[in-house]
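Residues determine shape. Next comes a sample protein:
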Amino acid sequence: MLGKKLVTAQKRGETRALCLGLGMVACSMMMYFFIGITIVPFYTKSVWTTETVCKVLKANIKEQVLCPNSRGSEDEESFPYPCLQVWVNLTASGQAVMLYQTEDTLERNPQCSYVPSKSENPTEVKARIETIASNFKKYQTFPCYYDPGGMQTSVILTRLYPPKGLLFAFLWPTLMFTGGCLIIFLVKISQYVSVLSAWQ
């Protein structure tokens, strides 16, 4: 009687472990799919892939401009802010080009090097832009990214999705997939040993 209870409990445990392993594999596959349709396209679309050294030529704050939304229409998402323009000397080619914070900055407003968030306070935005301009004037040389193919003449300061960030994004689903497969493998080994022992 006790043996039957132990066998039943073992089967229940194996079933739960198998479900856990299958669930982990399924979740990891969904995470792979989500990363594949969100992060990977932005990474492959970016042409600013080569790092070089930029030297500041000038950093000016112009009058307030109206920031359009991603569609380019002026609606409730548009807001005025001081326009910071930073021009740098690209060491790789010796050209004078405009610097943008990220790839998204160029898409949101190609006139300005920095685009603040809509939710920020106008006073804080003005102070932040002035601080950024003073930092560029203080630190003349810094690393930046440019397009080696020459499709984009501008440069960016920071990549939204660098290779390390992409690898880190794939790390967690890979660990989950490996753990799920390991659990399934161990359950199958346990079942095989149990069947072998019963046969003997």
